[in-house]
Each structure stands twice: as structure tokens, then as C-alpha cells.
Amino acid sequence: MNYDYLIVGAGSAGCVLANRLTENLKNNVALFEAGESSDIWKVKMPLALLYTMHDPKYNWKYYSEPEPHLNNRRLFCPRGKMVGGCSAHNGMVFVRGNEDDYKRWESLGLKSWSYSQILPYFKKIENWSGGENQYRGSFGLLPVNQSKNSNPLFGAFLNSASEAGYKINPDMNGADQEGFGMFDTTIHKGERASVYKYYLEPIKSRENLSLFTKAYVEKIIFEGKKAIGIEVRIKNKLEKIYANKELILSGGSINSPHLLMVSGVGDADHLKEKGVNVIHDLKGVGKNLQDHLETYIQQECKTSDTLYSYTKLLPKIFAGIQWFLSKSGPCSHSFLEAGGFAKSSENREKPNIQFHFFPSFVINHGLIPPGSHGYQLHASPNHPKSRGSVTLNTSNPYDYPKILFNYLENEDDLKQTRECIHVARRILSQPSLKLYSGKEVGPGNHVQSDDELDEYIRSNAETAYHPCGTLKMGIDKMSVVDENLKIYGLKNIRVVDASIMPEIPSANLNAPTLMIAEKASDTILNG
């Protein structure tokens, strides 16, 4: 089988690429996804996001290696394994990052990734409920809506942020990111607005698009340094499928470097050690792994305005019925809609923390139900300096790779996280939350000194689910792709997903990933 373009991975980036590349009817495109359809109620219902996160049918369910600076804990690293990828199981918060994020990218020698050059692509994505303006788009394919969640805890939290001296920002994707408010969400008419639903589903019948699900790509086929195709297992049969023009990797920050390495592209010494035949020695493959690390500041709640009630059988059933009948009620929200961006101390020039407010306790990624009414503030430094890696366990493409985030290796990351807790406590202690606030249960009022806070962080901090950077774009010797996303030293192969981010932006990563895919699509189509 031959196609012009082979896209490996039908996640957020892959769905965008499939849509845009097939707009030209002369392009014959094949899209490969190891998982299956995401056209199920568990994906569509916003509050059901934890169901697919813990289901191996729809999630890769990776774990990190023991993290040396987090008391050797192995951290959960869920990744979407279905059409739509992580857009089909994320928290539906739509944040782009700020102008400074992309100025930093530009300063790394990536002139075509300046804020002014990528802003049109962010606008191109959006059908924003707030309407078209200098910063926002209203003609895009993806519904992006200002949250209207009326839970009283959100109003009390935002008032408390204001009382603590922080500004209220009506649009954190607009002219300025700093401040607190209600995040934009990819929730539309009570349902998750996944990239599959709005980019891929409407064009699935295009004659020049072939979608293969339950299709596990085992290897890239090379002819010298030229990528010519893939070996892919479809319905338990190994097929060789060839690309007339290009192979595009969109498997994400874990799977894309893993596929390259098992195919012979990466650090030659590492590949030889694992028994892989070296096609191309490229030291940066799998390096530069970054993520946002969150610490939870938790308080008991004196009222019943939290999600605790919906852990009980009858309220859960009634909420589910309400959603199935009218796509309304608590199940039509993610409840991650309130938060903001702030400086962790007066010494920080720019906002360096992102906060999410959540009206419930989250214990072990939702596997353990909370024991009482409560709420929590998730706090994470935006620009961690620590770097990790994705490496091979074995040469077998079905063996999961080793993932080491190396969280908090850099001392400043720990200091910023500690400062996060002080800011969170200041906000949560303001008058507007007095009606609701019970005792602090995490870290707890007895935890005050730097050493005590550090131990709380090391024992409890969790991923914000934002891995990126493992095939970084740049011009230095550890860069893997150039600014057109072509892999250095190879022909006919690009990477289009969050792995190309040289530095993690101040954002939940779905919106920046969509921007990357929209921009890459234009680059590919314009030759």
C-alpha cells in the first residue's frame, strides 16, 4: 500500500494534519492509531474524564521510573490511546501560553515561531464564544467557550484571589495572561469538544483519507537516511505501507521518540546497548523531557457545594440521567475551569505559577474517592529547569520505554514550588472563602518550615499531565528537528506533536499542540 502522507498517531496533532492535508484532494493520506474510536459516552461526558484515564483500552497508562527527587515515587503518566488522543481525555482547559513563552522559542534561533507568527494559527483553531478580536478567533473548527460554571465555590475563590491582591482577568488567552478568572474550555453544548469530533469526524468520508485504528506501528522503514514507510500491525497482520512524500510522527512526547529509537534513530551508544541497529546517530532523541509538577493545597469545606455528593450512588445516578437526557447538570462540566497565573514572589519578574481550583479532593488521580467535602488549589511552576528523558527498556517495540522526568532536580524548581504553597495559602485564607473553609488538610497547618514543605512536596506532588520536549526543535547539537519540523540528517520525515517544544509553555498543552499542527500543515502544503 502506498499513500502520499503517512501520519502515525491520531491524537490532537494527527487529527489536525489529517483534516488540513486532505483539503487538497490530490493528497492521499493514511492516519494510523494504536487505539480505537473515542466515540463513546465516557469521552463525551466532561465529568467522566477519569474513566478513560484509568482504562488500558483507551490509555497507555505509563509510569515514570522512580523519581530521585520525589522520594523515589513512580508517577503516573496517562496518555490518550484512542482517536483524538489526549484531547479525548484531558481536563478540557484551553490555555495557549503567553507572548514571552514564544519569544523564548524565537530566541533559540526559531524565527518563524515568534509570537506574531504563531498568533494567526491560534486564532485559526478557535471558534471562540467571546467573538473575534486582535487575539482571538471565531471562525475556527474547534469550539472554545468561556466557562459558565456557576458553582459558588468558583465565585468565592476568584473573590479571594482579588482580596489577596491579584487582578481578575476575563481572558487569559488575550493581551495578557496574568491574573485569575474562568479558563476557556473545550466543552460545547454540555459535551467534550475533542479534536476528533471537530477536525476528523466531519471529514472521515473524504476519499483521499484512510483511517486505521487498532494499528500499532512497530517500525519505520528506512532506505539509507530516507524514511520510506512503516511496518504496522493491523488486525494482527504485519503490513508494510509506504509514503510517496512524507512520514509524519504525531505519537506524542513518549511514543514518538520511542518509535524513532526502536527504528534505529537516536543516541547510537544507547541504541547499540539495547541491540538496535543504528540508522542515524542523533543524541537529542528522547532528551529534554519536561512537565509541569503540581502540588495540591487542600482544605475541608463546611458546605455541600463540592463534588463529594456525586461520589454517592443516588446523586451520581441522577446527575448521569440529567446529562444523558439534556447534556446539562454537573456532568456537563470538568470543574477545572477556575484558576490563573501569578508570581510566586516579589522577586519574579513575570507570572511563573499556574493555579487550578477544583471543588473536591483528588486522591491518587481519582482512584480513591474523597472522604469528605473539600476543595483544592493545584499549583505548578510554569518553567521548570529540570530535564528528564525517554529511553528504551528493550528493542521490542511493544515494551514500554523508560520515562524519567527528573522533577525537582534543579533547586529553583523546588523553591518555586514551595513559594506556590505560600501564595495558595494567602488566597485561600481571604474573607470570601471564610464561609466555606474548614481546616487545611494538605499540607496541614502544622507544616510551615521550608524543610517540612519540601518533604510535603516530595511526598505528594503529581504530574499536571503535560509531558513535552523529547524531540526538541532548535539549532543546537541536542536539537532533533529544524523549524520546519524535519528531523536533522534524515529525509522525508517530520515530527508534529508536543515533543518538538523546545521549552514548555505556560499552558495546558492541548492548545499549543493544535497550533503546532496547524502551522505544520501550512508548511507541508506549501512545500
Secondary-structure-derived class = alpha+beta
Beta strands, count: 26
Q: Helical residue percent? A: 25-40%
Please report the number of helical segments. 13
Q: Give a short account of the largest sheet.
A: 7 strands, mixed
Instruction: Work out the strand percent.
Output: 15-25%
Uncertain stretches: none
* Distance N to C terminus: 23 Å
Mind explaining what this structure looks like?
The protein is α+β, with helices and mostly antiparallel strands. It is built from 13 helices and 26 strands. Strands 1, 2, 12, 13, 14, 15 and 26 form a 7-stranded mixed sheet that branches. It is globular, with a radius of gyration of 22 Å. 54% of the residues are buried.
State the main characteristics.
527 residues; alpha+beta; 7-stranded mixed beta sheet; 7-stranded antiparallel beta sheet; 26 strands
